[in-house]
Design brief:
Blueprint (H helix, E strand, L loop, with lengths): L3 E5 L3 H13 L3 E5 L2 H8 L2
Amino acid sequence: MNNRILVVDDEEFILTLIEFNLQQAGFEVITAMDGEMALQKATT
């Protein structure tokens, strides 16, 4: 089972920083810049 996490933030730098750190910790990271995009990604 993959450890997958959805990260949502409207600041691209913060999103990239969080994504990098979570990937280093072994997570599969999915990112979204807003709530609408997050809902789309969460339901697929």
